[in-house]
Amino acid sequence: MTGRFSTEGPLKERYQVVVVGGGVNGLGVARHLALAGVTDVLVLEKSYLLHGASGRNGGGVRAQWGTMDNLVLARDSIPMFRHMSAELGFNVWFRQGGYLFLAHDEEKAKALADVVRFHNANGVNSRLVDPTEAHVLVPDLNAQGVVAASYHPGDGIIFPWAVVQGLAKRCVELGVDVRTFTGATGFAMKGGRIVGVETTRGRVHGDSRGQDGSGSVRVECETVVNAAGCWSREVAALAGVALPNTPVRHEILVTEALKPFLDPMLVDLRNGLYCSQDMRGELVCGIGMPGEKPGVSFASSFAFTKRVASALLDVLPSVGDVKVMRQWAGAYDVTPDNKPILGPSPGVENLVQLNGASGHGFMISPMTTRIVADVILGRKPPVDLAPYRLDRFGPGWQPEPETLVIG
Question: Taking the alpha carbons of 355, 357, 358, 362 in that order, is the dihedral positive or negative?
C-alpha cells in the first residue's frame, strides 16, 4: 500500500490514528505504527516539514545524562540511529565522534566523576579524562583551566533534516498519509474521548475549504497523538487537557566549512556552550541565553552571536577568523523535570502525549516514538511508562534534578 505526501488533495473521512505534528516525533511514531501494520494514519503538519524543532536543532545525540529516565531513552536510541540509514533507505549522516564535557572547577569535576560512575553502572561507557587527554582528543582545545572532562565515544551527531525527510519518505512508502500546511484546529469530543479532529483541509479534490465553506473539515479517528513540540500545550488545550510545558527560544549558528579538526562535540559546563563539526566541515554552535523569556519565537539576535563567539574563542582560539554563515532559532518544549511526557492523558485517554522533551527530543526520538506506538498498539513498552506519564505531576511531586541539560 502506498500513502501520500501532499499539501493539496482530499482527506479520508476517517483514520485510525491522527498525529498532530510532522516532526521527528510525529513521523517517527507513524512509522512504528505502520511497521506494525497500522497504516491508516494521518500526520498533520501545519507548516512545512522541518518548520519546528526537528529542523532547528544542532543534531547532537548523546547517552551522557544525569538521571536514569533520560539516560535510558538516550542510551537505547543510539543503536537505532546507527541503523537508521539502512532502515529508511536514506542517508541520515550519523557520525559517532563522542561528546567531551569540560569542567573548569573542582565542584564540576567532582560532579562529572559522579556522573561517570552512574553512567558506567548503567551501560554507558563514558570515562573521566584529565586535561592532557582532553587536549589529545581535541588538539585545538585551550585546556588551560580545565580540571577534568568526561568523554563517551559512542555519542555523536546526525543531520536532522535528513532524518525527517527519510522518515517522511518511509512513512509514505508504508501507507501513511502525510499532509503539510494542514493544521488541527479543534477536537470533537464525546464521552471523554476525541472522536474527530477539525482540520484546515477539505475532502473535495483540489478544494482546501471545508464542506460548509468555513475552511475546516473534521476527520473521525480512534486515537490522536500530540507530537506538536512547542505548540503541544495549545494542542492539548483543545481537548481540555493542561500540560505543564513551556516553550523557550534557543539559538544556533553555523560557520563556513573548515578542514575537519573536531571529532567530539565540545560542551563547556561553565556556560552551556556546545560546538560540533558536521560532515560538511561547518561548526555548529549553541549556548544558553540568561534571561530568555518563555514563548515561541524564531527570531535571531546579535547578543547571541557575541555570547557564543566569546565562549567559543575561549575553548577553541584557532577559530577566531572563521565566518558565521547562518544563524537561526527554535524553541525547546520544556517540562518542569526536563523529561518527556508520554502516554495517555488523564480524562482523555485516547489523546496520547509525545512531547515535552526539553531540548533533547530529537536525540531520544527513536525510543520515545517506539514507546508511544506500543501504547497505541496495546503492547508493553520497552521501559516503565510511569516516569514519563502526564499524571506524574501530582500532589507531592518533586523533580529529580537533571544536571546535564545544555544549550
Answer: negative
